[in-house]
Amino acid sequence: MENTTTVRTVEVAGGSSEISSARHLTEVERSRFAPWFAAIALYSVTDTTGVALSLNLGEVSDILGRKSSHQFPGCDNRVWILTEDEEAALVAASTAKTAACDAVKAAREAEPVTISAVCPLCGTHCYGDCTASR
Questions:
Q1: Pairing outcome for strands 16-24 and 51-53
Q2: Per DSSP, which regions of the chain are E strands?
Q3: Which parts of 68-124 fold into alpha helices (H)?
Q4: Whether pLDDT at 125 is above 90
C-alpha cells in the first residue's frame, strides 16, 4: 500500500521559508525520478494554507536540530517533515524575530535624522579629502 499520507512540512527556498502540507509520492510518481530523489521527494499539497516564516535556512536547521531530509521537485529547496511541537517552535521563533525586527525599525524611524557637512574625522568642511580620512 502506498504512503500518500499528508504531513506538515517547512520548506526553505530562495531565502524564504514556509510551513505547509505535503504528501509522499505514489509509485507511479516515483518512477519519474531517479531512485535517490524519489526516496526524498514530496509533493506540496496546494489546497492548504501555508504559513510564511521570517526564518532563513540556518535558523530553521538550528531550531529543528537536524538537516533537511526531503525536497520538493522543481527547484532548489530544503524540506523538513514537522511534528506539532516543531511547527509551534518555528512559528514562535519567526514571530519573535519579526517582533524584534519591527522594534528596531520603529526605533530607527523615531530617531531624528542629522545631516551635517562637517567631516567627522577632522571637524572641518573638507568633504572627506582631509589627511584624517587617509
A1: antiparallel
A2: 6-13, 16-24, 42-44, 51-53, 78-81
A3: 84-110
A4: no
Is pTM beyond 0.90 here? no
Residue 35 exposed, middle or buried by CB count within 10 Å (0-12, 13-18, 19+) = exposed
Exposed e or buried b for every residue in 68-105, given b needs 16+ CB within 10 A?
bebbbeeeebbbbebeeebeeebeebbeeeeeeeeeee
Q: For 88-101, write each residue's pLDDT tens digit.
A: 999 999 999 999 98
pLDDT digits (tens, 9 = 90+) for 24-81: 999 999 999 999 999 999 999 876 778 999 999 999 999 999 999 999 998 789 999 9
Task: For residue 52, list its beta bridge partners.
Answer: 18
Strand partners, 7: 22
Which residues are CB-neighbours of 17 under 8 A, at least 6 positions away? 10, 11, 52, 53, 54, 55, 56, 57, 60, 94
